[in-house]
Fold these 2 entries.
Entry 1:
Amino acid sequence: MEIVVVGSIALDTIETPWGKAEDALGGSATYASIAASYFAPVKIVGICGDDLDEKAHQMWRDRDVDTKGLQIVKGGETFRWGGRYHQDMNRRDTLFTHLNVFEHFHPQLPESYRDAAIVLLANIHPSLQLEVLDQVRAPKLVAIDTMNLWIDIALDGLHEVLKRCDLLFLNDEEAKQLSGKSQLLPAVEALHAMGPKWVVVKKGEHGAILFTESMRFSTPAVLLHQVYDPTGAGDSFAGAFLGSLAKEGEFGDDALRRAMVHGTVLASFVTEQFSVDRLLGIDPSEIVGRCEELSAMTRWPEKL
Amino acid sequence: MEIVVVGSIALDTIETPWGKAEDALGGSATYASIAASYFAPVKIVGICGDDLDEKAHQMWRDRDVDTKGLQIVKGGETFRWGGRYHQDMNRRDTLFTHLNVFEHFHPQLPESYRDAAIVLLANIHPSLQLEVLDQVRAPKLVAIDTMNLWIDIALDGLHEVLKRCDLLFLNDEEAKQLSGKSQLLPAVEALHAMGPKWVVVKKGEHGAILFTESMRFSTPAVLLHQVYDPTGAGDSFAGAFLGSLAKEGEFGDDALRRAMVHGTVLASFVTEQFSVDRLLGIDPSEIVGRCEELSAMTRWPEKL
């Protein structure tokens, strides 16, 4: 199966307690497309200025990501985001947001994109996510990732998107904020009622939980000696999750469990360096190694 | 195997967003002894005033907890603690601490306690934990639970205890504080170097992780519709963990995994009501049911 990913392409300026990166390639569509490309064919939809260097475009070519849906604005500046992480990496401050070319963006799906089986509406404004949904013909699976910003300023649009989605990715704070419930289980029940039959609650260093009608599946995060920069971990989780499903071509319970594991593992790589530096050039054996590490960490006793 | 539990016996005044309890039975030894009693014989060491009502004493009798090591001070007042939880139940404020009879407490182990195979030094001042260690003869397993307060004001004593312990229970913030490391894995390595060969990091609603030389085992928390009051969850975890090991009589990897599961499950019951209200009278079938729920939530796909 093929995946269409729509989201942001950004140049990020990031400070963490361990270092700083300026104008480093980022954005939800960037992370999600690269992570998904380890598993299945990916087509990206987005916008950038011609200040995005050739290295970025070469990266998509190297990962066989189809960029026909990428709009490159001549003389335009790429979206820029600045953020700062503290010792507690689960929290961050946004320092600045320059929309630039994003301000007048309307996603245009090339004809060859419109029959994709899987659509990932990565983290962008809900109105843009809706425009994509109006252009795809009969996806088998529509997934949405979102963030607190859209819950704050575009709630109606977000609800519209949710009605048309099968799968919602969000973190635990967002789950509580969007549902208005202070505890996780009632929050997830409320989210299901908004549309998505599957909800994945991402919890950063505490792992993630998948909720479907028939099951719940919890994975811990991969334990790392040093989380360097968590930016893009959630986007990479979503990309790898859907890539894993696309590769299998079916969405049974075990396929969903494997998707959770692959999402968790790809997200772990991202956090080890700034930008996509660690996400590029992962050896397949490294992915298998971390899957086995997670498996060992959750190996249940032979009997209770 | 038998377990000796030393810790506090308290009357707690607790406020949560959902309600308030005054002078409700609590304390680390109370929770730990009751939780452990579902699995193995327990002997408690502690102190209380004669204001502790007959109901509390009857409770220990009902659970077959040996109270020969319990000092009841005539005319004395039981230790009292007041705390307030907010919407984010992972954080709490201490409103008051009245040591009362605790101020001059020195644990005295009856002769019949001194050959116990398992010793739980539940959360009390490290100097009292040391006094207990000087009275037991040849325990097979010594476990310690601690808190941020002792890291702040009794660090040297805590280090002394740690050198003589096999197993350390603490939460993730305490792990970082005690080790001086901001990330979990280096923190746990530093804790191992302080003495305990096994470390259990408790993460509240995010579950717990056990670290030994040969393995790591992660369990999610039981998902509840309503966490009512988390007080005593960590103590109950420790009690049930050791109870489970005591019942098995050996400390192999699968026995440790089952201990993690039992700790997680007993902790989940405690949080559903104030005080020990839910911890008393749990039907064994309810314990099995929640173990199976956790097992289902972490069931790994048949193949990766």
Entry 2:
Amino acid sequence: MPEKSSEQMTLILHSGEFDKLMSALILGNGALAMGMDAVIFATFWGLERFKRGGLDCGKLSSKHFLGLGRWMVHRRMKRAGVASLDRLLADYKELGGRVIACEMTMEIMGIDRSSLRQDLIDAFGAVGTYVNEARQSGITLFI
Amino acid sequence: MPEKSSEQMTLILHSGEFDKLMSALILGNGALAMGMDAVIFATFWGLERFKRGGLDCGKLSSKHFLGLGRWMVHRRMKRAGVASLDRLLADYKELGGRVIACEMTMEIMGIDRSSLRQDLIDAFGAVGTYVNEARQSGITLFI
Amino acid sequence: MPEKSSEQMTLILHSGEFDKLMSALILGNGALAMGMDAVIFATFWGLERFKRGGLDCGKLSSKHFLGLGRWMVHRRMKRAGVASLDRLLADYKELGGRVIACEMTMEIMGIDRSSLRQDLIDAFGAVGTYVNEARQSGITLFI
């Protein structure tokens, strides 16, 4: 049994909404910047964002932009020094954050590996993989 | 004060959506299969699923089926070797998973004990019950 | 690195829905009543509830009242001995619960300090503030 540590944040990213995805990446990047490990276990709508083009603005409905419209949100993010989702995800990977794709989601939602951005995915796993990561993590969240 | 352990997963199941309920049961079963204890504290829409007939397909709207239709989802679940919600819940109980029904939810949402599947519910409790379970759990999630 | 403890509950309150807000406050108050520390890190729609008037009934749509109508929910809450959101929040503060407002949310959603109920907010912080609180918390949830 791995010892409990405060040194890892393990997120289940179940939702694919703009604000939830953004929160997950900001949390992961924050943990990494503070010397923790970070794992995102992507399931259901969260995994859909890891499909090719899944982060494209066109794939996000207007309600995903906080009810403000895409242009306004992007202007405010820029002004606040917040990177785009693409940039946040690139930072996450560069800082050593890991992404695990849920194999059961792939089967149920009909997502095959070739449709996923495999450059962003470190491993494909099932619930056992998640439990092993989470049980040694100081911070566990379902987003 | 109980000592912090990696040996329990304690979930608050607040949502009653098909994909969230499925995730909770798969997580619980995964934890149990790996030798951990598991507790589901069922509140609000999550508790409604523990009413008699609460897992019936007819009670789940089409949007609860991943936007794919009930038949397609069931076919894919079967192909992926994923059990139905009924079977996942039966497995959860057989593996020793516990379900605690939130008494406050029952009062606010007007759910009485006789309408609940008491064969699946181990205890009725309030927030103090939850806190006692969660504070000794290595994995805590709000689903 | 702070040592892992069972003595704090740290919630991210991302959602602003009636039932989620109520759950967060009941959880926080429960933890405090049992001698734990509690922190609510308010982001996105959760932070909007900390605007002046953000807890007013008129600001909550009918779907936020469990599909039952405002009057019915309030009657049931009263009968169940559950305080109003205003009262739950006042209790939370009196018991020593802390609220941290997410600065990034303020910039992206265009919320300025003067529009927030600063009497309820203990600090303004970024993700680093959250990670520091959460990594020493026994219970971490994303609501």
